[in-house]
Design goal:
The chain has 238 residues and is mainly alpha-helical. Helices cover 63% and strands 0% of the residues.
Length: 238
């Protein structure tokens, strides 16, 4: 039977310095990163599917790849408010976890809206970033009649007013939120395009990487031209 320690041993064996260096350049803490590729994590995740307790144990290790793997395995619909909060709090200093793993499970939860609303005013950069990514995920996966369109429209206004003064990774997540609403919520396309025009180019420190922050207006226009507006996703996991 697999245990968290046996999985960690496998992760350590699959880690390599080149991948580890790449992760560190993207903001991951060197002392908590093993250098396991996402492709390898996805292969391992297939074997662990359905093992909810093991996923939670892996997240609790604090190792980046183990936490990412936990998000691939865990069923967010089975997680409690306390567990979701613990995952959000535990993602400090790790954008790959706060902006991907935490939103993955939170969006699946019946508490998704509740948690996103609770986190959005947090003074902790990683928690506030998780909130905006959760709202993006909700917009992408839930049908429009299950969304609070007035709330999403209000949040677009919040982005316009506050993005320039927001913390670095929060700016990145806010920009992604505008793109997500414009792409997936057809009734708010015009409002998202207006917000995108107002925020224009968003400056984010992406570390020693070649990553570029997408221009929301251009991204929405590209999806509109491809006739993808309003086409929902089954999951935001990647």
């Amino acid at each position: 039977m697999l245990t968290s320690q046996s999985v960690i041993s496998e992760l350590k064996a699959k880690g390599n310095e080149k991948t580890r260096t790449t992760y560190v350049r993207h903001g991951m803490p060197a002392e908590r990163t093993l250098g396991v590729s996402v492709a390898d994590l996805k292969v391992i995740a297939k074997r662990l599917k359905g093992q909810q307790d093991l996923a939670c144990q892996l997240y609790a290790t604090g190792l980046m790849e183990a936490m990412y793997l936990a998000g691939l395995v865990a069923n967010g619909a089975k997680m409690t408010i306390e567990q979701l909060q613990a995952w959000a709090d535990g993602a400090a200093g790790m954008p790959m976890i706060s902006e991907y793993t935490v939103p993955w499970v939170t969006v699946e939860s019946a508490h998704g809206y509740e948690m996103a609303r609770a986190w959005i005013k947090s003074k902790k950069e990683h928690v506030a970033s998780s909130s905006w990514c959760c709202f993006s995920g909700l917009a992408a996966t839930r049908e429009d009649d299950a969304l609070d369109l007035k709330e999403l429209e209000k949040l677009l206004g919040t982005v316009v007013k506050e993005i320039n003064g927001a913390k670095n990774r929060v700016r990145h997540a806010m920009n992604g939120f505008v793109i997500s609403v414009g792409w997936y919520v057809k009734p708010l396309l015009a409002e998202a395009k207006s917000a995108a025009k107002k925020i224009d180019i968003v400056n984010v420190d992406v570390g020693d990487t070649a990553c570029k922050v997408p221009v929301a207006g251009d991204y929405i226009a590209k999806n509109e031209a491809a006739q993808k507006i309003g086409k929902k996703k089954n999951t935001i996991r990647c």
